[in-house]
Design a protein that fits this description.
The protein has about 400 residues and is α/β, with parallel strands linked by helices. The chain is about 25% helix and about 25% strand. It is found in: Secreted.
Length: about 400
């Protein structure tokens, strides 16, 4: 009889254990009644406005850490009673409200890994203002983003899933045997992709790409012959860039063929990545717009990025970061290379030098009755000073009158 009682006790304990597991799963894992969180998407595709303009805000080197606990670097004590990452957040909100961009491009070192133990939380805070605005945006990685709790692959995957983000871990592959989790395999890095900006509403180019935005992963740190150096854009990435550019130009030729009675301008393109190429050092001896305040920190390896950009012919300007106090634009073989200037307050700067952002404005050519292709690309910078000063406005590229 006593043995039977023990069996019943074991039986009830077993049932209680099973019930506890089911209750835990129901309330915490499987059957939660809370609504599923779905990514918010911007209105697509990206396109020029009715007035024939498309404005991009470049944000370089936010270096976001842990919010209020991440103190500012290289600022005058008299300028701020207390300065932290929140000043970076305020500046981003201000720039969005002031310039009202159609798109925001973040060019790396979005977070400063050593200053945060939770990369995902830091990313959510750093990109918070642009997500709240509902403006489409995209990002590439710098050399500091991965120095926390996520790999570069995890970072780009996470960024691609954030609200209103158009970022991609890597370009899709047309070869089903060359795909892993939907990403192109035969390419180095994470964050290589292209975004198309379509013509103005109501024009015959409304369904055609007239401006292409190329994003490339310039890496972080590497070792070459035992010596540490910065990363660089690899040949596999350049192969993809050539292929993508050629495909887009073929599409442009098809538009010309269909619309026989009206001329169609060739698509222009812009490129965005973090670490400058070695040739940018040459601009110290040339005419530039802006200031060359520090040495160009680039890789010891020259992988032929400039040669590739010149050969594909559609990229008119490249926008970079990495060297925070440089904010100049200079021309290399017909292509402008422009620094964004240091944006974030937790990144290094120069005491007394205002943080800054770059604005890029593309303008369409006006035809007899409607907007055509891109005619002009301009840029300027905004300072985070009392007047949000607008400086160094210049034309980067203009369509030849003969075309």
């Amino acid at each position: 009889m006593e043995s039977q009682t023990v069996k019943w006790k074991h039986y009830f304990l077993y049932l209680a254990f099973i019930y506890a597991i089911l209750y835990f799963l129901h309330t915490n894992l499987l059957l939660n009644d809370r609504p599923i969180r779905i990514k918010k998407w911007p209105h697509l595709p990206l396109r020029f406005r009715h007035d024939g303009t498309f404005k991009i805000l470049q944000v370089a080197d936010m270096h976001f850490g842990s919010g209020l606990l991440s103190r500012c670097r290289d600022v005058l004590p008299s300028h701020f009673h207390y300065c932290s990452d929140l000043n970076t957040t305020r500046f981003l909100k201000t720039m969005i409200q002031l310039e009202k961009p159609d798109f925001v491009a973040f060019t790396g070192d979005n977070i400063f890994g050593p200053s945060t133990t939770d990369a995902a939380e830091s990313l959510l805070r750093a990109f918070g203002p642009v997500m709240e605005s509902g403006i489409p945006w995209a990002a590439v990685l710098g050399n500091h983003d991965q120095e926390s709790s996520m790999t570069r692959e995890e970072l780009m995957s996470f960024i691609s899933l954030m609200d209103y983000s158009l970022s991609q871990p890597n370009p899709p592959s047309k070869d089903i045997n060359n795909v892993k989790r939907g990403m192109f395999l035969d390419i180095d890095g994470f964050g290589n992709y292209n975004l198309s900006v379509y013509g103005a509403p109501g024009s015959h180019l409304a369904n055609s790409s007239v401006l292409n935005l190329f994003f490339l992963d310039s890496g972080d740190r590497e070792t070459v012959q035992g010596v540490r150096t910065y990363g660089w854009i690899k040949e596999s990435q350049l192969n993809w860039l050539r292929s993508a550019s050629q495909e887009l130009q073929i599409q442009n030729q098809e538009v010309k063929y269909v619309i026989k009675t009206q001329p169609v301008d060739a698509s222009a393109a812009l490129a965005f990545f973090h670490i400058p190429i070695p040739e940018v050092r040459q601009l110290y001896y040339q005419n530039i717009v802006g200031r060359f305040r520090e040495g160009v920190a680039c890789s010891s390896v020259n992988s032929g990025v400039l040669k590739t950009l010149v050969s594909i012919k559609d990229v008119k300007a490249v926008f970079i970061g990495h060297d925070h106090t440089n904010d100049f634009c200079g021309n290399l073989e017909g292509i402008w290379f422009c620094y964004g200037g240091g944006f974030g307050y937790h990144g290094y700067g120069r005491t007394g030098l205002a943080r800054r952002a770059r604005v890029i404005l593309a303008k369409l050519r006006k035809g007899d009755k409607e907007w055509m292709g891109v005619e002009r690309i301009k840029t300027w910078k905004r300072l985070d000073d009392e007047n949000l000063s607008k400086i160094d406005e210049q034309v980067l590229w203009e369509l030849s009158p003969s075309r």
